């Protein structure tokens, strides 16, 4: 017997909140980055859930898109983080505040 | 043959303008003088050849050079018109112009900007001859504005003098007032006739315009407004006395002999239109008569020699308008011609005085110059007597013709004209006496001497023309030679409602009256200013005269002061409202930016929190909806 959909959605919300809190409170760029990935995958989970509930393939299709885009984004994001590290010798995002008004 | 010559007449001075204007500095003074005088002299010869070709026959040959404006229904050809009237005017303009050019060579010999001077003078000749030879109103308007421009440039020729610069601006602005009317008149003519060709207007006016109708009156008065500005008639006369700031030959050429009479020429040219509106004709005659006596009265107390001559010019042009206003077109052109001779002569004589005395024109500092400048004094005397209307000089005949024509239309116009003639005699004798007679006042005239031949010769040619010019129109009972020559033109647009001449006895009585008045004026002036036995106080009039009837003060109070106030108010509005609004908006945006920059902390988590808050707000919005 499959697990009912509300559990899936609750897990998705939990994962998303974890990721969100991680983005908001952590200082290491890598951790922030991983938190973003967490949020993305939380969304993926809810997509898959809804796809199954509605008996539609659209949600699963979208998940593939998100996976591909996330993969590409990881490449660029990591490159940026590496670059920041090279120039500042730290990945503390609170140090990268050049845009302050 | 005729087309070529007609084109050459304005084109030659134009070429002189280009040469002196572009290469004046490189050519040297001699070459510039030769080019300037040569081109105008050649234009005079071309005009003389034209005269040979069109004499006798009532020739009217429009010459289309090319289609100038073609826009929809509006088609304007660059058209010249050669007929007795335009040829006669071209002869006067180029002939007197040539003499004054030659005089200028001597007068301006020491001026460093002689190239600029002759360039402007040649441009003026080209523009004036364009007016004269124009075949439609649009081409005439080119010349009309061209002479206005040259008048401005030459009045303000010594532009480093503030008075000269101011006088130039005054002349430009005041004549522009009239030009607006003229331009509106041209538009109206387009609207009515679909063209502005003089030949069409002359032929069609009788059919198209209702006699005495509102359209005819509006058209005539609008065109007359242009003439009032250009010819310095009341109430737009104020620029001409100020225009005396220019070099004296310029005053002789532009502000006495030619440009200021352009209005008279224009009215004669379009007499067919003006004849359709008796009201407009009466307005013209009245303005002319009132201007004649007003300006003559102003000249009575004027202390400046050149300004006396300027008022005299305003007054004499008033006579011309009086003439054309009563339908005596031939007489108007006759007076225009003789006035060109004797007024140019008077100005050149005044120029000789200034040349001898280093530019002095205040008659209170002149005196006794007849001993030092006998030839100049004699020339001035001839011009003065012609102006006063003493036979057999030309001014007598032309003025008398006007007065007798005026008598037959409106006796009151005649009375005003005769009174003005008396004042004319007084003021010109006064000017002569203060300048040439009596004791020498200043000590600076020790070295004063008659001018060199280059200035003397043109003056004496004008003396000759003044002396014999009356023969052009010598007649009391029948049209004179000039009038007969012009007859094909001046009657083409319909007969003027001029009554036939009265019995010879009446004519002789009129002649006798004006002679008596002129002689009386001279006698009174002689007693007042030479013998000094007669003392006439003008009483309360003196102040009025000295301020030229307060017209300029009225303008200053009624127009200049409000305009200044408006300008000041506009400037204040500009700084306190418009500028304030602009800077206020900029400053407000700057302040808002200052306030908002606190939001940009540079911390990633703050931006992420903003995104979160935004997302939550959208969520709340959706849920609550």
Compact description:
With 101 residues, chain A is an all-alpha fold. Helix content of chain A is 77%, strand content 0%. Chain B is 74% helix and 3% strand.
Percent helix of chain A, as a range, is over 70%
Count of DSSP H/I helices of chain B: 25
N- to C-terminal distance of chain A = 56 Å
Q: Which blocks of ≥5 consecutive residues of chain A have pLDDT under 50?
A: none
Helix percentage range of chain B = over 70%
- Kindly provide the radius of gyration of chain A, computed on alpha-carbon positions and rounded to a whole number of angstroms: 17 Å
* Sheet of most strands of chain A: none
Average pLDDT of chain A works out at 89
Largest interface: A-B, 13 and 13 residues
Shape of chain B: globular
Which structural class should the secondary elements of chain A be placed in? Answer: mainly alpha
Gross morphology of chain A: elongated
The string of secondary-structure elements of chain B, in order, is HHEEHHHHHHHHHHHHHHHHHHHHHHH
Order of helices and strands of chain A: HHH
Q: Strand content of the residues of chain B, in percent?
A: under 5%
Main sheet record of chain B: 2 strands, antiparallel
Q: Distance between termini of chain B?
A: 95 Å
- Trace the largest sheet of chain B across and list its strands: 1-2
Q: Over the alpha carbons, how many angstroms does the gyration radius of chain B reach? A: 30 Å
Structural class of chain B: mainly alpha
């Amino acid at each position: 017997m499959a697990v009912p959909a509300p559990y899936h959605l609750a897990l998705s919300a939990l994962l998303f909140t974890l990721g969100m809190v991680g983005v908001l409170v952590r200082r290491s760029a890598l951790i922030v980055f991983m938190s973003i990935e967490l949020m993305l995958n939380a969304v993926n989970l809810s997509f898959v859930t809804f796809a199954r509930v509605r008996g539609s393939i659209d949600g699963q299709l979208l998940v593939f898109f998100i996976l591909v885009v996330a993969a590409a984004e990881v490449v660029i994001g990591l490159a940026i983080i590496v670059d920041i590290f090279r120039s500042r010798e730290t990945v503390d995002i609170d140090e990268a505040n050049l845009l302050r008004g | 043959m005729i087309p070529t010559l007609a084109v050459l007449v304005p084109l030659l001075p134009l070429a002189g303008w280009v040469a002196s204007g572009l290469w004046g500095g490189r050519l040297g003074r001699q070459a510039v003088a030769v080019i300037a005088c040569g081109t105008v002299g050649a234009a005079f010869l071309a005009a003389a050849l034209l005269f040979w070709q069109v004499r006798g026959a009532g020739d009217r040959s429009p010459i289309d050079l090319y289609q100038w404006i073609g826009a929809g229904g509006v088609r304007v050809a660059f058209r010249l018109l050669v007929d007795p009237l335009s040829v006669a005017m071209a002869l006067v303009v180029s002939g007197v112009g040539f003499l004054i050019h030659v005089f200028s060579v001597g007068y301006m010999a020491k001026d460093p900007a002689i190239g600029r001077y002759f360039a402007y003078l040649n441009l003026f000749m080209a523009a004036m001859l364009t007016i004269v030879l124009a075949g439609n109103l649009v081409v005439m308007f080119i010349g009309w504005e061209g002479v206005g421009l040259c008048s401005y440039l030459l009045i303000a020729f010594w532009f480093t003098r503030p008075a000269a610069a101011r006088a130039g601006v005054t002349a430009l602005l005041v004549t522009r007032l009239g030009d607006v009317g003229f331009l509106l008149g041209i538009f109206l003519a387009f609207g009515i006739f679909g063209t502005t060709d003089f030949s069409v207007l002359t032929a069609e006016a009788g059919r198209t315009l209702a006699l005495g109708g509102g359209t005819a009156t509006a058209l005539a008065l609008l065109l007359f407004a242009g003439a009032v500005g250009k010819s310095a008639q009341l109430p737009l006369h104020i620029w001409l006395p100020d225009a005396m700031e220019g070099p004296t030959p310029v005053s002789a050429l532009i502000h006495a002999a030619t440009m200021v009479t352009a209005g008279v020429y224009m009215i004669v040219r379009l007499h067919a239109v003006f004849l359709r509106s008796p009201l407009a004709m009466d307005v013209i005659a009245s303005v002319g008569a009132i201007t004649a006596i007003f300006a003559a009265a102003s000249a009575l107390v004027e202390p400046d020699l050149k300004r006396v001559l300027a008022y005299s010019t305003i007054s004499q042009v008033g006579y011309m308008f009086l003439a054309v206003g009563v339908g005596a077109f031939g007489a108007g052109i006759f007076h225009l011609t003789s006035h060109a001779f004797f007024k140019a002569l008077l100005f050149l004589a005044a120029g000789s005085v200034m040349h001898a005395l280093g530019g002095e024109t205040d008659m209170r500092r002149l005196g006794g110059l007849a001993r030092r400048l006998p030839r100049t004094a004699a020339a001035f005397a001839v011009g003065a007597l012609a102006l006063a209307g003493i036979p057999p000089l030309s001014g007598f005949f032309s003025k008398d013709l006007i007065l007798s024509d005026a008598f037959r239309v409106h006796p009151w116009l005649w009375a005003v004209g005769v009174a003005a003639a008396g004042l004319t005699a007084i003021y010109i004798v006064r000017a002569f006496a203060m300048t040439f007679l009596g004791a020498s006042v200043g000590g600076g005239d020790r070295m004063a001497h008659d001018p060199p031949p280059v200035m003397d010769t043109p003056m004496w040619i004008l003396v000759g023309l003044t002396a014999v010019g009356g023969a052009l129109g010598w007649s009391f009972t029948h049209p004179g030679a000039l009038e007969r020559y012009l007859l094909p033109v001046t009657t083409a647009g319909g007969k003027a409602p001029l009554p036939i001449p009265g019995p010879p006895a009446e004519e002789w009585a009129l002649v006798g009256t004006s002679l008596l008045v002129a002689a009386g004026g001279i006698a009174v002036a002689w007693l007042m200013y030479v013998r000094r036995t007669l003392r006439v106080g003008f009483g309360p009039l003196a102040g009025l005269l000295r301020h030229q009837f307060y017209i300029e003060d009225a303008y200053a109070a009624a127009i200049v002061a409000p305009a200044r106030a408006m300008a000041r108010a506009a400037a204040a509005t500009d700084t306190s409202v418009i500028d304030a609004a602009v800077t206020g908006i900029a400053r407000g945006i700057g302040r808002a930016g200052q306030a908002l920059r606190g939001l940009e902390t540079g911390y990633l988590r703050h931006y992420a929190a903003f995104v979160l808050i935004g997302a939550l707000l959208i969520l709340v919005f959706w849920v609550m909806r």
